Amino acid sequence: MMRPHGRQQNEAFVFVGETAMPFRYPPDRAEPPTLRSQADASCSGVVAYEEGADYLVDYERGTIRRTQRSRIPDGALHPLHGAVRFDHTNIECSNRAYTVYADYRIAGTDDGETPALEQARGVKPRRRLGKGKDGRDAVYVVLGDSISAGGDASDEKYMYFNRFLNYVNERDEGGAVRLINKSLGGETSAGGLKRIREDVAALRPTLVSIAYGMNDQNLYEAGPEVDPAAYASHLRAMIACLREIPECEIVLVTPCPPHPDWKHASGRSGEYADAVLRLAAECGVGVADVHAAWLRELAAGKTPDCLLLNHINHPNDYGHQIYYETLAEWFETRETHSI
């Protein structure tokens, strides 16, 4: 994952009691982490927490925890804490009141970019996304479900597609790229396929990101809403439709896993991610592997509650950052993902 300037920003935590939680990266003792109640430090009502009074950092172990008298809300008080196969209906299940955000310098880094990003910048993109040969402005269309509609980001500026748009426009020498979001909450890949020609292809986009899978994997008595084979078939048909548009780039986005203890979590999100990866290789389109990045976060000690604001399937601001960074990494190296 990209970590520009050796800093981690807006890393999310949901603390349970006084249990220590690992930082995603080791913090630099010389520049202590800061912790607050919202991602945006300038928001009205944001609470800035104090090291020593509200939280304690163990720099040797790279962990952080609440103190006994902390002002940080205790995640153990969440009504669904510890619940298994929980039903989210008729209950307030959001993690918003329990989520805090940390900024810190990563130990052993400087103000330069990470080596991976520096190397990526050495790859010249196959072509920019600015004005095409016909003089049209570049259009980036976002297609997907509620996550791609911005679900549970605290502000538009934290929605992954807006961050990616800003990133592209900062680097694109061909002119400004404008965004059109055609995502619908609750939609599966079947719904996206039904709309692809009229809602997306008709816009003659320069770039389309396609992000489905969360609702497809939803488990019911008869099985998942859309099985992985049908899911792949729907995406393949979407790609075929967009291939009719000259100079249109396509990037598929693998889904993040839902909360594993949610009653509609099939536990098969990896199968949907694998279907995307196979399809991207088969069709020669780009891929932003959010699923793999998400698993790395979990393996590093982040919990589902630290990534999902609604406690079910919507990323918090840090989760949206993970989506954004996978897209940015694809963009930097997309010469190797020719269409």
Determine the mean pLDDT: 91
Q: Supply the CATH class of the largest domain.
A: Alpha Beta
Cα-atom Rg, whole angstroms?
A: 20 Å
The SSE string, one letter per element, is: EEEEEEEHEHEHEEEHEHEHHH
Strand content: 15-25%
Domain count, please report it.
2
Tell me the number of helical segments per DSSP (H or I, 4 or more residues long).
8
Structural summary, described in words:
The chain has 339 residues and is α/β, with parallel strands linked by helices. The chain has helices at 115-121, 160-171, 189-200, 228-242, 269-283, 290-299, 304-307, 317-332, and strands at residues 7-13, 21-22, 34-36, 48-49, 55-58, 63-66, 100-105, 138-144, 177-181, 207-211, 219-220, 223-224, 249-253, 286-288. It has two domains: 4-105, no CATH class; 123-336, SGNH hydrolase (Rossmann fold). It has eight helices and 14 strands. The strands form four sheets. It has a five-stranded parallel sheet with strand order 9-8-10-13-14, with helices on both faces. The chain has a four-stranded antiparallel sheet with strand order 1-7-3-4. A three-stranded antiparallel sheet has the order 2-6-5, with no helix packed on it. Helix 5 (269-283) links the parallel strand 13 (249-253) and strand 14 (286-288). The protein is globular.
Entry summary:
This protein is α/β, with parallel strands linked by helices and 339 residues long.
